Amino acid sequence: SFFQPNSLRKPPALKRLQQVQEEIFRQLHLLIPDEFAFHDLLVSRVSGSPDLRMDVLERHNYTTFFRLTYEFRDGEQKSYAPNAHIRFYHDVHIAEATSFNVGQGCLRTAHPSYPVRQIMQQASRRNRALDRWLDDILKQGHSVATMRASVDCKIN
C-alpha cells in the first residue's frame, strides 16, 4: 500500500512522475547521437547559446549515467551550470534527474527510513526542472546534429 503511517493521505503521483521521465527520455533522444555509446564526452555548439556538455560518468548494460551542463567561458576560466546528473534507462525508455548540483551527484536520495512524501516531492521537482530545461535546450537549437564527440577534458 502507498498509504504510510507518516501522514501521507493520498498515493504519490507515481504515474505523473513516470510520464515526465518518459518525456525526458524522448527529449534526450533528440540530443544524443549514436556515437554516445563510444565517447565519454560530447559537446553541442549553437550560436547564441553556451556550449552544452554531456559527460558520461558510468555505463552499464541497461543504463548510462551522465552529467549534462552548460560550459561558460571567461578567458581561460570555465564554469559549469546547472550540472544535471541523469540516469538514462535504455531498456524501459525513461530517464531521471538524480541531481542538479555537483555536490548532490553522489548523495543518497532514497532509503527505507526516509519519508516517502519528501522523496517523491524532491524527485518530482528535479525531473520537472530537467524536463523544462531540456525543452529550452532543444528550442535553442541543440540537437543530434550539433552534438559531437570531444577530446576536451572531462569535468571533475
Q: Please count the beta strands (DSSP E, at least 2 residues each).
A: 6
> How are the strands ordered across the major sheet?
5-4-3-2-1-6
Q: How would you classify the helix and strand content by structural class?
A: alpha+beta
- Strand residue percentage: 25-35%
How would you characterize the largest beta sheet? 6 strands, antiparallel
Task: Provide structural commentary.
By secondary structure, the chain is of the alpha+beta class. 26% of the residues lie in helices and 30% in strands. The chain is built from two helices and six strands. A six-stranded antiparallel sheet has the order 5-4-3-2-1-6. A hairpin with a 4-residue loop joins strand 4 and strand 5. About 4% of the residues have low confidence.
Overview in brief:
This protein is of the alpha+beta class and 156 residues long. It is 26% helix and 30% strand.
Q: What order do the helices and strands come in, and which of them pair?
A:
Blueprint: H1 14-29, E1 41-44, E2 51-59, E3 63-74, E4 77-89, E5 94-99, H2 116-140, E6 147-149
Antiparallel strand pairs: 1-2, 1-6, 2-3, 3-4, 4-5
Can you give keywords for this protein?
156 residues; alpha+beta; 6 strands; 30% strand
